[in-house]
Design brief:
The complex is a heterodimer of chains A (about 290) and B (about 100). Chain A is an alpha/beta fold and about 290 residues long. Chain A contains twelve helices and ten strands. In chain A, strand 9 (about 260) and strand 10 form a beta hairpin.
Chain lengths: ~290, ~100
């Protein structure tokens, strides 16, 4: 369920109407939010609601992710309520170091029921220290499958003004994508916070994709389709990837060594990119690829 | 058996939600459930069974419970009832006499 994460849609954890409709927007994952979207005095009620939603609500094709609070602000209690309800992953906020991940992983191990699929961890990096530790955070435990970037807190922490163009976070985005790639985990970009600015969202997703991101956090259902549209490989890319793999198959059958396509050698990184394009393409609805 | 230690409430009046209020009742008085809902005729009994099952899971037998329903689905009713009960606090019922 977590192999393709083009879009991860936040849903407030204490709002039944939004929770029960969260699966209809086609996001690759829904994030049932127990952290920022829930008032402090409603955290207890939200835990019960998210747990029951995980038991009963049909989220359709969206993977089920729960954003917990930090362990020192109720995250341990969040895990006690929701882990046995089998979310695919937990999104851990404000991860500062590898030890934060180990603490969450330790709790997951004690709380999972026998036979339950291991709950994966997505680390939300939103502080300068967390960014500096991103590689060790991503590699400290096999449950970590992705790093996600939270630029609002990060920008405040470095004392920069957050802009739509995002020049102030360009280096952070680069560090995060590099850390994730080095660790072999996915990288999920920060959300675009103006839900009424479609052109701005399009440009922001395009920039993230250009930087190497394969997915983006979404804070409103209307952002999901556009994120997919921009993150999806184009028809041209899909055809290229199919040709790459066809040439490789033929070379293997013929016992050939180095192979090329259109005059360019196909090496391991090219093959990897082609396979990723096709994996993404499998998740595009009919007619969904960009021309 | 368990008893509630005080009255408590959970939920909201937003569409798709419900406000569930629970309060301790005198020993032996049983479970009294009052439901306010626009769909009382169609779903009143279903709502009653849902909240009753939660009270029984907690081992509660003497409770006053009120549901103000705004179209909550079963999962939301269960969650709101659990939250109300946990906020009210549970204690072991003392049945013997010194």
């Amino acid at each position: 369920m977590l192999e393709v994460l083009r879009s991860m849609l936040f849903v407030p954890g204490n709002n039944p109407a939004m929770l029960q409709n969260a699966g209809v927007f086609g996001a690759d994952a829904v994030i049932l939010d127990l952290e920022d979207a829930v008032a402090p005095r409603e955290k207890d009620a939200a835990r019960f609601l998210v747990a029951e939603a995980l038991r009963q609500v049909d989220f359709k094709t969206s993977a089920r992710v729960v954003r917990i609070n930090t362990l020192d602000t109720g995250g341990a209690e969040d895990l006690r309520r929701v882990v046995s309800c089998a979310p695919a992953a937990v999104l851990v906020p404000k991860v500062q170091s590898a030890s934060d991940i180990l603490a969450v992983a330790g709790l997951l191990e004690t709380l999972e029921q026998p036979g339950q699929a291991p709950v994966q961890i997505i680390a939300l990096i939103e502080t300068p220290r967390g960014l500096a530790e991103a590689y060790s955070i991503a590699t400290v435990h096999p449950r970590v499958i992705a790093l996600a970037f939270g630029a609002e807190d990060y920008t405040a922490a470095i004392g920069a003004k957050r802009t739509k163009e995002g020049l102030e976070i360009i280096s952070a985005r680069g560090v995060l994508i590099n850390s994730a790639a080095a660790a072999g985990v996915a990288a999920i970009d920060t959300p675009f916070t103006d839900i009424n600015d479609e052109a701005g969202l399009r440009a922001d997703v395009a920039l993230a994709r250009q930087l190497g991101y394969k997915g983006k956090l979404a804070i409103h259902p209307r952002q999901v389709d556009l994120i997919h549209e921009v993150m999806n490989p184009s028809v041209e890319e899909i055809r290229w990837a199919q040709r790459v793999l066809a040439v490789l198959r033929q070379a293997e059958q013929e016992g050939a060594g180095a192979v090329s396509l259109d005059g360019k050698m196909i090496d391991a990184p090219i093959e990897l990119r082609a396979r990723h394009v096709l994996k993404l393409a499998e998740n595009i609805p009919a007619g969904g690829a960009e021309q | 058996m368990a008893i509630l230690t005080k009255a408590a409430q959970a939920g909201t009046l937003e569409s798709g939600d419900a406000v569930v209020t629970v309060a301790p009742a005198s020993p032996g008085s049983g479970i009294a459930i009052d439901i306010e809902s626009l769909v009382l005729l169609q779903y009143g009994e279903s709502i009653r069974q849902t909240v009753l099952a939660v009270l029984q899971q907690y081992g509660l037998s003497d409770v006053q419970l009120k549901v103000v329903d705004r179209g909550a689905l079963e999962y939301a009713l269960i969650a709101r009832t659990k939250a109300a009960v946990e906020r009210a606090g549970l204690a072991e019922e003392v049945t013997g006499h010194a």
